[in-house]
Amino acid sequence: LGSSSSVPFTSIFSQLFMTVVVPLIIGQIVRRYIKDWLERKKPPFGAISSCVLLMIIYTTFCDTFAHPNIDLDKFSLIIIVFIIFSVQMSFMFLTFLFSTRSNSTFTPADTVAIVFCSTHKSLTLGIPMLKIVFAGYEHLSLISVPLLIYHPAQILLGSLLVPTINSWMVSRQKALKLTRQPKAPVKV
């Protein structure tokens, strides 16, 4: 195409390491020393993590749509939403198919965990990665739009599929229990 660019891999990987890996390692080390205290006090980590995630989503939305150069028309936004929902459904369907193959050793509960955990990604990791990889890029807010749509889409699709997947899992577990029970001898 007649254009070229250079990517500072060392800088990007060191920033990603410091932003993602180091806090994880520090958290695991600290957790080992304060585990007993945490079990006694039982701090509301669920509420805290939900609030932090909500703040990350809010600030990302604000950063994205505060820039006047976003230039995203409604038709393009609708196409992006359609593509993201299609990709998310396809990934969930493919993971379901692969984890329920006849030679698979996964239980129905394993399949549910695989379907949801393998396809769900969070803004808490995606946004820092985008900001590091595309630092200084003037259209960063435009690049973050698909991630901003993907996160709510996975939550919406997951909540819509929970009743269906739950009924599948329960019926599959019952069927597995029936096939594993030894048959009673028939008296003649």
TrEMBL record:
UniProt entry tagged with the keyword Thylakoid: no
Transmembrane segments: 12-33, 45-66, 78-99, 111-137, 149-170
Claim: Transmembrane is one of the keywords in the record: yes
Superkingdom of this protein's organism: Eukaryota
Gene3D superfamilies: 1.20.1530.20
Keywords: Membrane, Transmembrane, Transmembrane helix
InterPro entries listed in its UniProt record: Na+/solute_symporter_sf, Put_Na-Bile_cotransptr
GO cellular component, one term: plasma membrane
PANTHER family: SODIUM_BILE ACID COTRANSPORTER 7 (PTHR18640:SF5), SOLUTE CARRIER FAMILY 10 MEMBER 7 (PTHR18640)
Similarity comment: Belongs to the bile acid:sodium symporter (BASS) (TC 2.A.28) family.
Protein's name in the database: NTCP7 protein
Gene that specifies this protein: Slc10a7
